[in-house]
Amino acid sequence: MRTFKVVFIIGLLLALPRGAAMAQTADDFQPFLGDFTGQVVFAGPAGFAKRDLEVSIRRERGGFSLKWTTISQKSSGKLKRAEHFVAFAPAKRPGFYAATDRITRLGARVPIDPLAGDPQVWAKISGTTMTVYAVLITDDGKHEVQTYERTLVPGGMELKFNRVRDGKPLKAISAKLQSKEQGINLR
Fold first, then answer.
1. Which bin fits 114, alpha (ψ -120 to 50), beta or left (φ > 0)?
2. Which residue from 60, 101, 144, 173 puts its CA 20 to 30 A from 22's CA?
3. Is 187 contained in some domain?
4. In angstroms, what CA-CA distances link 91 with 25, 34, 69, 94, 111?
């Protein structure tokens, strides 16, 4: 039954319009625009790990784009940088945004394709919180849900990240990100 619900939800999401602004006219994403940085320390499989975090939210094509970067240090001392970019357009439901495309490692913009391994992504804005949901279909046909809650606070935003695979929690991270206008720059 759970699998049916997930497949049904993904099917509905694939039917969302992917064009320019639809019924939504308010720029409820406006307060989230900007650059934010922070650090998080969390318990990982090999002990405690530290990551630098960067988030950039920009106005784009009637909606907004979201770029987030994590920088971690491997046990060898080498830095690992992971960058993600998703563009969002307003959906028919107020406060919802459908992902339209992403940027590949080579810098090309491509449509999101969940059956090719891309997550199905959408955003919901409610008050001072922007929640981004990503549903991935795993190689064995199961699902993983990642949730990013970004809540505006004085001087920046609080981030809460959760990753759940087939109903089992895998990771939960919380961090405070400061607006770069506050003078914080990690690297």
1. alpha
2. 144
3. no
4. 10, 22, 26, 7, 16
